[in-house]
Amino acid sequence: MKSIKRCQHIITLFLSIFLVGMVVLVVKINREASFYMMNSDDHRLGMVYDRKGDVLFDGSGRGEYPDGYFIDVGNLIGDDKGQMENTLVANNIDYLNNYSFSVGLVDKGGKAAIYTTLDHEANRAVYDSYMDAKGCAVAYNYKTGELLVCTSLPSLDVTRGYDNLENMESGTLMSKAMYRTVPGSTQKISTLISAIEIMGRERLFSKSYNCSGSFMNAEGKKIDCHQEWGHGDQNIQEALENSCNPFFAQLIQDSDMPLERIKSQYTKLGYAINGDELKYFDIDGIQCERASTTLTDTGDFITQWGCMGQGDTLVSPIQLMMWESAIANGTGKMTMPHLISKVTDVSGKVKKSADTEFSKQLFNPSTATTVKQMMKTNGANHYAWSVPGYDIGIKSGTAQVKEGEEENALLVGFVDDPAHPIAFCVVLENKYSTPVSAEQILTTMLNNLCA
Amino acid sequence: MSNPFSYVFSCIFVLLAHGAMLFNVFSNGNYDDVNSVVVLASVVIGLDLVYFTIMPFFRQQTYAVDFMLILILNMGLIFQSCFGGVDFQLKHFITVIAALISCRIGYLVCRDHRWIEDKKKYIWICIGILMGIILLFTGSRSMWISLGESTSIQPSEFMKPLLVLACATSITEQQKKHKFLCFNIVYENIIPFGIIGAICLFQWWCRDLGSIPTFGAIYVSGFLLRICYPKGKFSKKPIIIAVASLAVLAVIAVMLAPPYVKEERLFVDIWANKYTTGHQQCQALIAIADGGWFGKGPGHGFLHTVFAYQSDIVFSSISEEWGLLCAVMSVFVLLMMVAIPLVNPPRSYYHGSMCAGIAAAFSVQMALNVFGSCNMIPFTGVTLPFISMGGSSMVVSGLMAGMLVAAQSPVFKAPKRKKNEKKPQPVQPVQMQNIPQAPPPVQPQQEIPPQPPINYTLTDRRK
């Protein structure tokens, strides 16, 4: 009988393994059924709303909206047509599925929806403020991480379809805020942070370099200042406000700034250095390119320009904005942005809600406080008239692109106001081709967000 | 029949189950002509009644497996007749009949364990013959023998019950050592290893890699019974070694797998290839999701447009039209049939080891079909026993069900004596009753004369 029991044990073993498998299967199907249905030809999509309940995407296709109603968010929110892959809808389409394994597909009355943190009204105002110009603008709450404005021009009205795809301008189908661009002098913030981290505040402020309009570096190559007659002797605060290239070139070349330390700090900030593999960070499924630069020798022309936002340096506007949060918070940690506030399922039950997350330590809080004060001084001294009414820390940049044929204007910074903790980045492409200025766009943005 | 009431109640239960399913077909099914439902209902209920009438003529101690078998077979017939629209599937019905007949054959052949054990050499030969048939009659490196435009058989399927019988063993056989050169070898333990090795190589050659896990499981059940023998319990050390060896073998198998297996089966991202290599599985999963718990209704599915919807992905086809609940329940009926030896223990070690082999074969084959089609494991394209369309599978599954029946209702006969063998002494009743007796005085100097083997003429202990 004992030997027969042994046979029964083997039968039990096989059946138990199979039973466990069946349980796993049922659980798996129950959890993933929505994903399966999204891959079928037959699905019912829900809606995407902004923070005030305004529709940003209508998956049912039954709503009626004015012409161009979604144009300011077209390449960010996207649609389900498959033409744009790096959009909110494309990467979170499962959440919009008006389906559950228990009730099946719900044609009408399904409440599957994504509630975003965007302010459609402000976003539209910023979009309109560009008039005929191109570029992108992005802003978020640096305390909570809520992405408030993110618009990119040119854009498209997704309700019109893609019949005109071949004639669309380059960059129409992508939100430029997520992709790298030449940062211009906004890069000097990263260099400033690195300098403070490496040599300390006191030592940095004790240093003074002369600008005569240009500087011959160790390699024998000339670095010009935007002010032909130069800025004379300056300390770091003045150089930052003047955005003086010769000063920063001399700072990079200084023996107190060893290359390895600069590389180390840049790596902490998230740069891919010297051809490292390009990485991405994720905002609710949307892939954002991380910064990259070349740092080979502190006396090298490319390295010096790289630290001043030209050369090989590329940074996405959203990352420029995120660094501002680490400064504005005074912690040295970035507040990670998010676009989705909450998600509801087919029955309206909240199945996901956002949490505020922070990055690892990028630099010391004391450095953050120093840079914050320097940027606020710059804001007070130079932008009080162009962006009136806000206590802002700011840094501008001019980026030469297309072999120097065009110049883009950039503004990065933050509002130092507990009621409106907003970090921002504005990019205005080919700034000489339009009467609009980056400051005007920024003012519109802040007026709408802080109203 | 020991209890006619339980027999009648079991009949009523099966009829009710089929009746409920047919009512669902009638009320929710997709059909143009109600006659198609009437035909299906008549055949199903008719087959039930005929089966219930015939069964008592086979004098068995229990009919549990038989009831499970008719239940699942007719469930399968109803499912198959409803995919994509209600239409009686005559071809499947014929395979159902074939399965029932082969079940009887399996029962008759295996009910006497001594008889079948004596025929082990013939079983080994049959496996060899089957391999030869496959080599000679299938196409180049194929597993099918075509019998016409729409009919073909898969001879390798028939190796499954043969391997079960080859791996089934008795304690006596496990102890028989044979002198080979300077080694004492137990043929009973060595030969199955050779057979499984040959079968695996052969299956690899035939490109029927999907069946290898089933064969492997059958062998593993026999192997486990053998390695744990002398202690009468599962000793950890040999089991750990066996599992480790199995893992190493699996890794080697994966490494040596042909490129098409690696690219299209083992490491395929089905959703990235949903229009090519992952099409079947993607559609199968979508169908399950579409069906939900309770299904879209018989005949209302779309999966019938996908290749092998009646066989390889039949679990999904059932889920779509009848609901996941029903599909899982039908698998559970199969499971219960295999689990009957746990409730009603086999009467001999040989039958027990046979049941273990069958449980291994069925559970692995069900797992390959169900989990494979649902992308939990590589998709192998094997059939779901008794439910999938396929004659070879049906006959073989029926045969193995018959072996289960045999384990439940065995016949113990004394083996025929050879002419020169002396008549054994009859066993005294007092010896069978195990009454404690005083031990006989030990006489160490006295040589014990050789005794002829004792042959028990057992009767059913439950009577």
Q: What order do the helices and strands come in, and which of them pair?
A:
The complex is a heterodimer of chains A (451) and B (463).
Chain A: H1 2-38, E1 47-49, E2 55-58, H2 74-77, H3 88-91, E3 99-100, E4 104-105, E5 113-116, H4 120-129, E6 135-141, E7 147-153, H5 188-199, H6 201-206, E8 209-211, E9 214-216, E10 222-224, E11 232-234, H7 236-242, H8 245-253, H9 259-269, E12 272-273, E13 280-283, E14 286-289, E15 292-293, H10 301-306, H11 317-328, E16 333-336, E17 340-344, E18 350-353, E19 357-361, H12 365-382, E20 392-401, E21 406-415, E22 422-428, H13 438-449
Parallel strand pairs in A: 1-5, 12-15
Antiparallel strand pairs in A: 1-2, 3-4, 5-17, 6-7, 6-22, 8-11, 9-10, 13-14, 16-19, 17-18, 20-21, 21-22
Helix pairs in contact in A: 4-13, 5-9
Chain B: H1 4-28, H2 34-54, H3 64-82, H4 90-110, H5 113-118, H6 120-137, E1 145-146, E2 152-153, H7 159-167, H8 171-175, E3 178-180, E4 183-185, H9 187-205, H10 212-227, H11 236-256, H12 259-266, H13 279-291, H14 314-322, H15 324-343, H16 349-373, H17 391-408, H18 429-432
Antiparallel strand pairs in B: 1-2, 3-4
Helix content estimate of chain B: 55-70%
| Domains of chain B, number | 1
Q: Helix/strand-derived class of chain A? A: alpha+beta
Overall pLDDT level of chain B: 83
CATH superfamily of the domain at 177-339 and 356-449 in chain A: DD-peptidase/beta-lactamase superfamily
Kindly list the characteristics that best describe this protein.
A: alpha+beta, Beta-lactamase, 5-stranded antiparallel beta sheet, 13 helices, B: 463 residues, mainly alpha, two-stranded antiparallel sheet, 4 strands, globular
Structural features, described:
The complex is a heterodimer of chains A (451) and B (463). Chain A is of the alpha+beta class. Chain A has a domain at 177-339 and 356-449: 3-Layer(aba) Sandwich (Beta-lactamase), CATH 3.40.710.10. In chain A, 33% of the residues lie in helices and 22% in strands. Chain A has helices at 2-38, 74-77, 88-91, 120-129, 188-199, 201-206, 236-242, 245-253, 259-269, 301-306, 317-328, 365-382, 438-449, and strands at 47-49, 55-58, 99-100, 104-105, 113-116, 135-141, 147-153, 209-211, 214-216, 222-224, 232-234, 272-273, 280-283, 286-289, 292-293, 333-336, 340-344, 350-353, 357-361, 392-401, 406-415, 422-428. In chain A, strands 2-1-5-17-18 form a five-stranded mixed β-sheet, with no helix packed on it. In chain A, a hairpin with a 5-residue loop joins strand 6 (135-141) and strand 7. In chain A, helix 4 (120-129) runs antiparallel to helix 13 and helix 5 (188-199) crosses helix 9 (259-269). Chain A is globular and about 95 Å long. Chain B has 463 residues and is mainly α. Chain B contains 18 helices and four strands. A two-stranded antiparallel ribbon of chain B has the order 1-2. In chain B, strand 1 and strand 2 form a beta hairpin. In chain B, helix 7 (159-167) runs parallel beside helix 10 (212-227) and helix 7 packs across helix 16. The longest helix of chain B has 25 residues, at 4-28. The termini of chain B are close together. The interface between A and B is large, with 38 and 45 residues.
